[in-house]
Amino acid sequence: MKITALLVLKAAPETTDPVILANASDVSHFGYFQRSSVKEFVVFVGRTVASRTPPSQRQSVQHEEYKVHAYNRNGLCAVGFMDDHYPVRSAFSLLNQVIDEYHKSFGETWRSAKEDSAQPWPYLADALTKFQDPAEADKLLKIQRELDETKIILHKTIDSVLARGEKLDSLVEKSSDLSMASQMFYKQAKKTNSCCTIL
Amino acid sequence: MGSAFRDRTAEFRSLSQTLKKIGAAIPSVHQAESDPTSSKRSSPGSSRSEFNKKASQIGLRIHETSQKTARLAKLAKESSIFNDRTLEIQELTVLIRNDITGLNMALSDLQTLQNMEIADGSYSHDKVGHYTAVCDDLKTRLMGATKQFQDVLTARSENMKAHENRKQLFSAKNAAVDNQNNAKAVPEPPPWSSSSVPSGNLQQQPLLPPVNSGASSGSQLRRRSAIENAPSQQMEMSMLQQTVPRQESYSQNRAVALHSVESTITELSGIFTHLATMVTQQGELAIRIDDNMDESLVNVEGARSALLQHLTRISSNRWLMIKIFAVIILFLIVFLFFVA
Lengths: 199, 340
Hints:
heterodimer; A: alpha+beta; B: Methane Monooxygenase Hydroxylase, Chain G, domain 1; elongated
């Protein structure tokens, strides 16, 4: 479950190509010579998908072995390249977060951008590494996972409580036997005491 | 959740025997009480066992009714369109309803009997407590059975609705596209898909319920072809309509996830209550163990003191025994002296 790249683009409503505003990609698992071509591929597909995504829409496109998720909000488009196992919902919540962050940090300056910006945006790189695990991006998934773990722990607890109950059961038996035996002991002692008083 | 109830009647009986023996040692005080109690015991003995008999009868009938309700539930669930068992279901429904009304009346009779017993005179609190406990238990069981019955009836009515819808779909297959679209748009939640958790990430989610019988699989195939027809005809209309279902599926996804989280939390709370019950039950066991140990300690202490007394007596007596033996030997010597 892996994110390969995250892009933020300005999606122009006209036929012009979208302008890349930020780009972060993780190509470490490709061979050294393939990395640049993969980056090019990411840029190209990102531009294509962003230009085809109508505003205020979410879209998921399957491209070779990647799923490309795009979210366009009022001209600001976030595109993510994920593999097939990454849950769609967390992908879109991640894109949501990215767009919010971009808004917060860059305000409206992106609207005037005309060419691809070359400055890296550290937040995007951090987000890429942090959100490799879909649970981070999607709180619901995280909660569900934690709840399942808790349920497992509780099941184990109940099993151990049942075992404890059985042990308590056996203890009850033994203690009642012990009290019976001590009672017999007491009676015997009193009997031996009572007979030899004459001597 | 089966409550582990322990049958302690044997202990109770042995305890009462011991108490009787102890009571026989002090006859004067208790003899006066034992005659009126024994006379009382004979007359309410019949009514007490009568109460018990009635209560056990009612319990048996409640159990039978719940069994019938379970059978009815199975029938209602598995009825398909072609194998229509409405007649059986209706018969069973009427039977169960009569049973429940009968049980209600019997329970109210029991309640009046209990009130009579209470008003008869100040009886032991244990008896009154026992009667109230038995009545409450029977009432809760009857309520549970009635609720089960109601659930089965609602499930059956939902089933009937689904059947009707599917019949409509079959009959309206040759109608215009609009009818088909309408039939598609009306979210047909068959009852079993609402109970199972639908998997996320399905764009055709509301229209693919898990299949049970061949008839419904046929309808599913027809629905699939309806879906394929629809987009090609709607392609002339705005693209928006195609992406709107996608948007919906995203939010539906989230709704479903929230739902599952909520149900998990409810399950967790159930588990916690279960845990608490078990721990309280076991706490009572621990108290019993403690009591047993105290009792055995007391017994052993008493036995030890008795043995100690014995020891002191023997050791003290030995002096006297020596003296007695000395006297006897003296007599023997004196005898021998006389003879010899």
